[in-house]
Amino acid sequence: MGLFGLRFYSLVCVGLVLSGVCYGGDPFANFDLEFGYVTASPLGVPQQVIAVNGKFPGPVLNVTTNYNVVVNVRNQLDESLLVTWPGIEMRRSSWQDGVLGTNCPIPAKWNWTYQFQVKDQIGSYYYVPSINFQRAAGGFGGFVITNRKVISLPFNMPDGDIVITIGDWYTRSHKDLKAALDDGKELGMPDGVLINGKGPFQYNSSVPDGIEHATLNVDPGKTYRVRVVNVGVSTCLNFRIQNHNLLLAEAEGHYTSQQNYTSLDIHVGQSYSFLVTMDQNASSDYYVVASARFVNQSEWQRVTGVAVLHYSNSKGKASGPLPDPPADGNDNSYAVNQAMSIRMNNSASGARPNPQGSFRYGSINVTDVYTLRNIPPTTIGGKLRASYNGISFMNPNTPVRLADTYKLKGSYKLDFPSKPLNRPLTMDRSLINATYKAFVEIVLENNDTVVQSFHMDGYSFFVVGMAYGEWTENSRGSYNRWDAIARSTTQVFPGGWTAILVYLDNVGAWNLRTVNLDRWYLGQETYMRIVNPEDDEQPPPDNVFFCGDLAHFQKPQRAAADLSIQELIKLNFKLLFTLAAVIYMVI
């Protein structure tokens, strides 16, 4: 760093110290994200979608390991908003997690600045609204953390990077979908699948005229890192590129053993990156397909997304039938075997120089065991609700750690059962009272009729076992105790179970939930409250919002012109960098 850089950084850091959030010598990445409505017709029907900075999907955010990330979110919607960052661990700072148990919502026409460090993380993630069923209207975008240059990739540097969002889609508004659930109705079959916010290429007569499709432009002979994330409502999608192998390289921030797939099931909330080499002739374009899985294929034919892979020297449009999905029919073993074939590359370095396999999870004694069992949505108190262990979660009026900080009593309970109990279903604010640095086994039992995704905020966990049928003590004999993939979102098949292991070394309040948006909205979630007796958690940020029993502390948000320099520093760090440059020029 030159003299100007040193002086510039020092001025910046001094300013940050004033506002209480200087993180040493790691660089800062600043983003402004405005969430607002635009009209779009991804499936040929005009509808209101949530755009970010006028784009649908939103822009991809690119940062590097250990960067301090500052995101000023401006809510131009007509309702409250929260943005969450699935897979970003928010070390010691669940204040930035962006779910109702950790944050008060951002009111309409207000802004709030997220401030977090992507400490010791790499990989492919995304950001997305977490409340008011807004994910069904958009508001999502990619979030990529690249390696530091001092850490070698476990593969040759790709020639390019392509981010793809896939997801099922309804032409009904998110408010109408939410109202249907409130009325006790199921959402029904989606109207289609979007790839990068666009409808299907007209591959046959079932696709109407006038639908815009996504095109991925590539050069022959080059290898691209293709990052794919399922941002949909509730449908698992099989992803494939016609005539091209998908060499799996990474799953949610961890490098995998590299193996080729002709297609891969990507469940709701999951993300992967593949190395795809453009090694085919360019006689025509190629199909990129994301189609619904674990449904009646003939009835769900419309729930298929089709984009186009276009070589720069292509001689014609893609034509003919789509590449086939897996022909597993009633063979449950295919999907389970594929999921368990995704394994950690133990010798590769991730965000740190030491190999990913250095943490020998298989030799650590389990200290606590939790079983989370879900059932189909059930009426509780006259309302359709979903649950874990017989409890349908109600978010506390005041976020968990905010209530703790202000010593509020009765905001929530620390009595979530460690296993299902034989008692009537209930709605409650029950949390798991977890132990700091415990090594925990969580058995997920899906007694619902649909495949589900499970996500844990604040952590990556090891997916050690998965099967159809009932979990028993003997199931531990099938666990992968050597190279299980670590990730933050895993699938749980209907009538089956998935087992995960996780080391609870991140203090805070962390959401455990189904990612299936309908079940999540209906209450299938809880939180783990993890407190370190030595209290190494970060304090509430200076710009914390107050709500619930602490709402009287919240001051109205003023326009930027009315704020002091100190307040501007706290609200928008870009202003600080500009101020530092001006001061430098003066001195």
Portion of residues in beta strands equals: 25-35%
Indicate the CATH topology of the largest domain. Immunoglobulin-like
Class derived from helix and strand content: mainly beta
Percent helix: 10-25%
Global outline: globular
* Main β sheet profile: 6 strands, mixed
Rg, nearest Å? 24 Å
CATH architectural group of the largest domain:
Sandwich
Indicate the mean pLDDT: 92
Organism: Artemisia annua (Sweet wormwood)
Protein name: SKU5 similar 1
Family: Belongs to the multicopper oxidase family.
GO molecular function, one term: oxidoreductase activity
Write the layout of secondary structure elements.
Blueprint (H helix, E strand, L loop, with lengths): L2 H17 L8 E13 L6 E6 L8 E4 L3 E8 L7 E2 L26 E7 L5 E7 L11 E6 L13 E10 L4 H9 L9 E4 L19 E4 L4 E8 L6 E5 L4 E6 L2 E8 L2 E3 L4 E7 L8 E7 L11 E8 L20 H9 L27 E7 L3 E3 L2 E3 L5 E3 L6 H6 L20 E3 L3 E4 L3 E8 L5 E5 L4 E8 L17 E2 L1 E4 L3 E8 L4 E7 L2 H5 L3 E7 L33 H7 L1 H14 L1
Parallel strand pairs: 1-4, 3-8, 9-12, 11-19, 20-26, 23-24, 25-33
Antiparallel strand pairs: 1-2, 4-6, 5-7, 7-8, 9-10, 12-17, 13-16, 13-18, 14-15, 14-17, 18-19, 21-22, 26-31, 27-30, 27-32, 28-29, 28-31, 32-33
Question: Could you please describe the fold and organization of this structure?
Answer:
The structure is a single chain. This protein is mainly β. The protein has three domains: 25-139, Sandwich (Immunoglobulin-like), CATH 2.60.40; 155-346, Sandwich (Immunoglobulin-like); 361-530, Cupredoxins -  blue copper proteins (Immunoglobulin-like, Sandwich), CATH 2.60.40. Helix content is 11%, strand content 33%. The chain has a six-stranded mixed sheet, with no helix packed on it. A five-stranded mixed sheet has the order 11-19-18-13-16. The longest helix is centred in the first third of the chain and has 17 residues, at 3-19. Mean pLDDT is 92; it is low at 1-22, 560-569 and 573-587.
